[in-house]
């Protein structure tokens, strides 16, 4: 089953924190986020796990890392690619399913994720 699309997709998005990282990059008015900003928004994620997931997502073409070396310290920001934005549409469908069948959060039902203020300063 190694060639099965579902298995391959699960290997990527089924890893802990992956969907949450993509979701955080989608949320808010500024889509570009720095490493420490993501770490703070994600709560319990370790630095090593975040670094690993960001590299995996970049390798898969779901996010892009932009490096600005014109200042010190060097400024790195992460943002979604078109491929990542398309996956967000699927994540939004999962949210709708979860709201219907699992969650009981009226506030979440009424809010678009990009406008969500939870965990944002």
Describe the structure.
With 121 residues, the chain is mainly alpha-helical. The chain is built from six helices and two strands, in the order ααααββαα. It has helices spanning 5-13, 18-26, 35-42, 47-59, 82-101, 106-110; strands at residues 63-68, 75-80. It has a two-stranded antiparallel sheet with strand order 1-2. α2 (18-26) packs across α5. The termini are far apart.
Return the structural class: mainly alpha
Q: What order do the helices and strands follow? A: HHHHEEHH
Q: Could you list the spans in which at least 5 consecutive residues all have pLDDT below 50?
A: none
Strand content: 5-15%
Mean pLDDT across residues:
86
Helix content: 40-55%
Q: Order of strands across the widest beta sheet?
A: 1-2
Q: N-to-C terminal Cα separation, in Å?
A: 44 Å
Query: How many alpha or pi helices?
Result: 6
Describe the biggest sheet?
2 strands, antiparallel
How many strands in all? 2
- Global outline: globular
Radius of gyration: 15 Å
């Amino acid at each position: 089953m190694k060639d099965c699309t579902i298995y391959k997709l699960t290997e990527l998005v089924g890893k802990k924190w992956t969907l949450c990282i993509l979701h955080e990059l989608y949320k808010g008015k500024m889509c570009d986020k720095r490493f420490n900003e993501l770490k703070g928004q994600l709560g319990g994620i370790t630095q090593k796990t975040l670094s690993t997931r960001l590299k995996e997502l970049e390798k898969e073409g779901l996010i892009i890392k932009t490096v600005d070396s014109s200042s010190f310290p060097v400024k790195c920001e992460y943002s979604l690619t078109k491929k990542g934005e398309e996956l967000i549409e699927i994540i939004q469908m999962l949210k709708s399913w979860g709201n219907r069948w699992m969650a009981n959060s009226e506030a979440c039902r009424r809010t678009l994720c990009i406008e969500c203020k939870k965990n944002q300063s």
